[in-house]
Structure formats: C-alpha cells, structure tokens
Amino acid sequence: MNPWQEAFDRLKVVAQELECAKRTLDERLAQPSCTGTDRHEVSETRANLERTFLLRLYAEFEGGLGVLGPNLRTPCVFAAKDGLGYKLDQIG
22-81, pLDDT tens digit by residue? Predict the structure, then answer.
C-alpha cells in the first residue's frame, strides 16, 4: 500500500471510530433502562470521548510520521523513543 495513503487511512479510521462511539453512547443514553450509575458513567464517557479520541488521533499522526519518514525526499527513520517534536524537526 502507498505509505501516504496508509497514514491517511489510519487517521480516517480514528475519525470513523469516534463517530461510531458517539452514536453508540447516544443510543445507550436514549434507552429508558440507562439510569443511575450506568447513566452517569455513560454520560461521563460521552463527555470525555472527543478528548480521548484526540489523543488517539495524535498517536496515529505520530505513528504516521514513522511510516512516511523513509518515503520523504530526504528519508528519515525514527527510533521508538523519538518524540513528535524531534520527528517534525527532522522532516523540516
């Protein structure tokens, strides 16, 4: 697979999973049987969902840099310990 497409596809999957999770939690909250502690937990999960997925998106973006690095005009190969700042500096 084209590494550029692979990196973009990884980001798209996170976005699709976010939408699926939103729908699922909203459907659960709409059920009359969702009460008490269950309702509170589902509501809290729904309230924090975008932050959670933002972290996943960040991680996939950083992982995508590792996939794309070797395919750049000036190839870059990153170690597992290399942070996002280092990767972006190396890419330029």
Answer: 999 999 999 999 999 999 999 999 999 999 999 999 999 888 888 888 887 788 888 888
3-state secondary structure 17-68: HHHHHHHHHHHHHHCCCCCHHHHHHHHHHHHHHHHHHHHHHHHHHHHHHHHH
CA dihedral 40, 44, 46, 49 (to 10 degrees): -160
Tell me which residue range forms the domain holding 13: 3-91
CA dihedral (65, 66, 71, 75) positive or negative: positive
- How many domains does the chain contain in total? 1
pTM metric for this prediction: 0.74
